[in-house]
Amino acid sequence: MSRNLTAYRVMATVVGVLLVVLILVGVPLANFDGSPMWGLFDSTPMWVSTGSDANNLGEMITTYLGIAHGWLYMIFLFSAFLLSRRAGWDFPFTLVTLVCGTIPILSFWAEHRATERVRAEHPELA
Length: 126
What we know:
Layout: H1 2-31, H2 53-87, H3 91-100, H4 106-121
Helix pairs in contact: 1-2, 1-4, 3-4
């Protein structure tokens, strides 16, 4: 189970960092140019101008990092699910752990919470 915990922790950290960069850096740089966004908002804040270096950087981040994050998130889900089965987590704890992996910053709390539980319930891993 030590391998499962390590794989989960690595994937949770990688996915968490990528999600923070994607959501807190890439999306604002790519989309906050005063134009409508995703059909939900009439206009966004005017932080960057369309076609600027910052806007192009945001487009690159959202495109490439977004794709990488999507694939790595699937690996994260798989590693978290395997750990949950090996550690004997109940369904609510597993679900919260998996869902929190989709929320920037909160994913780090979920990883810490899951690691603490595994170490408490399986002292041989401490």
